[in-house]
Amino acid sequence: MMFSNLKKGLLATTMLASATLVAQSASADDMVALLLPENVNPRWEQQDAAAFLRTMAEIAPDVKVEVFNANNDTSVQQRQAEQALTQGAKVLVVIPIDGESSAIIADTAAEEGVPTIAYDRMINSANTTFWVQADLEGMGYDQAMHVINNTADGDTLVMLKGSPTDPNAAVIHNGQLRALTPLYESGARIMGYENWTQGWDPAIARRSMDQALTQLNNNVQGVVSSNDGNAGAAIAAMEEQGMAGTVPVSGLDCTVQAQQLMLLGKQTQCGWRPLEDMAAAAAQVSVRLVKGEDFSDLAPQTVENGVGATVAYVPVGSYSAVGVDGVAYVIANDASITKEMVCQGEAAETTFCQ
Asked: pLDDT (tens digit, 9 = 90+) per residue, 259-289?
């Protein structure tokens, strides 16, 4: 699904203007906590957290933002939430490790009158106040279609799925299967190997890809990877077999490393979301919640979460970035990534960077 720049601009501009109206009277004692899930994927700290901090500094400079990182430990994330509440947080913005266990965080916060925002990943609690996300099923479909369109009848595929505890991983995989299941059933494509990646850990994805290559005797023509960390791991494994750059590999997030691999022809696709807009939406709703003010004009849509609760929702668009043109698009539209950042190391020698 192509992301509309006009829609992107309208979302960010409209919400920013609305939030600015209430930010002027924010108290210096007000605090918002941002709880990150892990640091194995660089986007959380380098892109999402950075964008959230930038927006908060612009629209509510008097509101303190505390950032926590749980390093893929659900008990640590719960303790960090408790610590934030003890410190007086007025809003929790949570990227949950586990959509189920994070319900404890939202429920505990609600007992103290503190609202919880689910960022990127849904929290299955009746006390989830707001959610912002892109069409991840559609992005999974785009990943699979890219690999389908760059492979032939009878080709063997590897599927490196996301973390089994992340509800988003299943949504992405459902999108992939929507495209691939008919081909698997007809024999047009062969499912050679698939595995989940606990905690989205690239080291686990690397072991999976090594196993796939061993079991299939390197007979792999495409890799449907659910994110860039998995993609990089798959490419590293294929590099040792002299296969990198000959097999289409999908991804998600369009990290700097992924774009470098795309310029080198080793990763061929990545799904991009406007993380700047996602972080801005979360920040703008946070400011309204800090003030105890209505935010329905900022989040007019609703979704039902896993426990049947109605949650206010802001959807954002997405873009399937392919090859050099995809890298150019992401750099032009992602405030967190510059051409200078991408054009480092081996990628600096590519035509794009000259």
From this structure: 999 999 999 999 999 988 999 999 999 999 9
d(CA 187, CA 340): 44
Supply angle C-alpha 54, 60, 65, rounded to 5.
65
**Nearest in space to 164 (alpha carbons), one of 128, 133, 204:** 204
List the structure tokens of 161. Answer: 């799925």
Which tokens is 313 given? 């929702």
Letter for the amino acid at 62?
Answer: D
In whole angstroms, what is the distance from residue 302 CA to residue 76 CA?
30
pLDDT tens sequence across 16-53: 333 333 333 445 579 999 999 998 888 899 889 999 99
Q: Tokens 């918002």 belong to which residue? A: 32
Main-chain dihedrals φ then ψ at residue 94, nearest 5 degrees: -120, 125
Phi-psi region of 199 (alpha: psi -120 to 50; beta: other; left: phi over 0): left
Token pair, residue 166, equals 């992340």
Neighbours of 306 (CB within 10 A): 14
Q: How far apart are CA 36 and CA 248, in angstroms?
A: 31
Helix, strand, coil share of the chain (percent; to 5): 50, 20, 35
- Token look-up 């490393």 returns 257
Model-level pTM? 0.82
What gap in Å lies between CA 188 and CA 64, rounded to an integer? 55
**Burial group, residue 303, by CB count within 10 angstroms (0-12, 13-18, 19+):** middle
